[in-house]
Specification:
The chain is of the alpha+beta class. It is 33% helix and 32% strand. The protein is built from 8 helices and 13 strands. The chain has helices at 10-24, 37-53, 97-108, 123-131, 166-177, 184-191, 221-233, 251-259, and strands spanning 2-5, 58-63, 67-77, 80-88, 114-119, 135-145, 159-160, 193-199, 202-209, 212-218, 240-246, 263-273, 281-282. The longest helix has 17 residues, at 37-53. It is globular, with a radius of gyration of 19 Å. InterPro entries: Acyl_CoA_acyltransferase (IPR016181), GNAT_dom (IPR000182). Pfam families: Acetyltransf_7. It comes from Streptantibioticus rubrisoli. Residues 1-152 form the N-acetyltransferase domain.
Length: 288
């Protein structure tokens, strides 16, 4: 088995997507198990983005006969390390591929004070993250059709965000999770709708992709509640919403989602090292 860096090429982005699809499977596919074209384009674009911004944190495992069998994408933002993706195809699982990839990805975070990743419910992955020194915080998700009639209006102003809000968002990031997202905001702005609050009570922001909350951070629960309410009310009538990766510290988000008629379920772990669960905060699968 060979470990090599992920390159910023269409071929490597396609290989990472193929490994990811084979590893996790997904109900969000077209007949025949294929990803919708817009999802393929976005995923591959993000792979190439990380290959440019974090070339020393992105690794692919190749078997001489089978080709690409595993991938890890890790990032560093200020003093925070994050694992965006760890995937191994089923035929190569249990053979040390994931362990080798995780070690290489964690080596990229040497010197970082904090670590963050969103883990699946897979018991092998959970065991690996715990052995790597992460605390595992069971996570919940909210999902379903939003009933706007059940939601109280936001208790203050919520604005459409623009690139001019990057300094504000970086400041909120540092306060909530100990490190700014920095250049990630440019990528997120290209993929998602952004809501921002900024008043005498504090500040915060929320990215929403269709009906999925991609990332939310605020300086208080009150502002986080306002942002999540506005984001859910923006979902088109009859549209579905998803609010993932909620630890027990995010009860404010449960209150909003349940009020909106969403259903609550279990959803893997938020895994942390050198930090407490950031709050009020909803991490991104990809950008953490």
């Amino acid at each position: 088995m060979l470990l090599r860096p992920v390159r910023d090429t269409a071929e490597d982005a396609e290989a990472v997507q193929a490994v990811t699809a084979a590893s996790f499977g997904d109900s969000r596919t077209l007949p025949g198990g294929q990803w919708p074209p817009d999802r393929v384009a976005r995923f591959r674009g993000r792979v190439r983005y990380f290959a440019r911004t974090d070339p020393d944190g992105c690794w692919i495992a190749e078997d001489e006969a089978a080709g690409p069998v595993g991938v890890a994408l890790a990032l560093k933002r200020e003093f925070l390390w994050g694992l965006s993706l760890l995937a191994v195809v089923p035929a190569a699982q249990g053979k040390g591929v994931g362990k080798a990839l995780l070690a290489r990805a964690m080596g990229y975070g040497r010197g970082c004070l904090r670590g963050l990743l969103c883990g699946t419910r897979h018991p092998v992955a959970a065991r690996a993250y715990r052995r790597a020194g992460f605390t595992l915080h069971p996570a919940m998700r909210l999902g379903g059709v939003v009933d706007p009639a059940r939601l109280e209006p936001p208790d203050g102003a919520v604005h459409e965000g623009t690139p001019r809000h990057r300094d504000l968002m970086d400041s909120v990031d540092r306060r909530t999770r100990g490190g700014a997202h920095g250049c990630d905001h440019e990528q997120l702005l290209g993929d998602c709708r952004l809501f921002v609050v900024d008043d005498l009570a504090g500040s915060g922001y929320c990215y929403i992709d269709g009906g999925r909350i991609e990332l939310l951070a605020a300086t208080s629960r009150r502002l986080a509640t306002r942002l999540l309410t506005a984001a859910l009310l923006s979902v088109p009538p009859g549209g579905t919403a998803c609010v993932p990766h909620l630890t027990g510290d995010q009860q404010w988000a449960l209150d909003v989602g349940l009020a909106a008629g969403l259903e609550l379920g279990n959803s893997g772990y938020v895994c942390l090292r050198g930090m407490r669960p950031p709050t009020p905060y909803i991490p991104s699968d990809t950008f953490l």
